[in-house]
Amino acid sequence: MDWKDIITWLLVIVGWFIVHIVTMSRERLKENRDAALRIVEEIRRVEEISVEFQTSTEFSDEKYDLLVWRISRIAMAIYRPPLKHLQISTDIVIKFRQNLTMNTDKSKFVTQSHNEEIIKNIHEATDNLISEIEVQKYIYFT
To answer: How far apart (Å, rounded) are the C-alpha atoms in residues 130 and 116?
Structure first.
């Protein structure tokens, strides 16, 4: 084996290694973007559950428990990898949780119509959280 063969094999190995690293990086970014998309879809579903809960004719313990449980899952997912890299503001998540769980005292529950302030706040908090995720996703996952 002469020095030309050694250089050729060295270039092949180095080239393969670089392509492998770039491919893995691209796959990781794709997985991170998919995770962000899934959390946005879950946030929209929770928004629907919250509106359904608020507009129901009577307080439902099951719907309330489901709502709180799913909001907690969203908050946990936002603050663990891969989404923790997005650095979503804690204030936005807190406002999301507060607005989606307003009017949840069983003894004081009042059915809301779709044009009530509570429903508007639910939609606004949801949109703010999703907007923050989309902005941060663009910054960190592109």
So the answer is: 22
Q: Are 96 and 67 in contact (CB under 8 A)?
A: no
Q: Look at residues 82, 66, 122 and name the one whose alpha carbon lies nearest to residue 98.
A: 122
Rounded to the nearest angstrom, the gap between the alpha carbon of residue 87 and the centroid of all alpha carbons in its chain is 11
pLDDT in tens, the chain (142 residues): 788 888 999 999 999 999 999 999 999 999 999 999 999 999 999 999 999 999 999 999 999 999 999 999 999 999 999 999 999 999 999 999 999 999 888 899 999 999 999 999 999 999 999 999 999 999 988 7
CATH code for the part of the protein at 3-140 = 1.20.120
Token pair listed for 33: 């973007």
Q: What is the pTM of this model?
A: 0.86
Our measurement of the distance from residue 8's CA atom to the centroid of its chain's CA atoms, rounded to an integer in Å, reads 47
Q: Where are the alpha helices (DSSP H) in 1-142?
A: 3-55, 61-78, 90-100, 117-140
Distance CA 84, CA 81 (A): 5
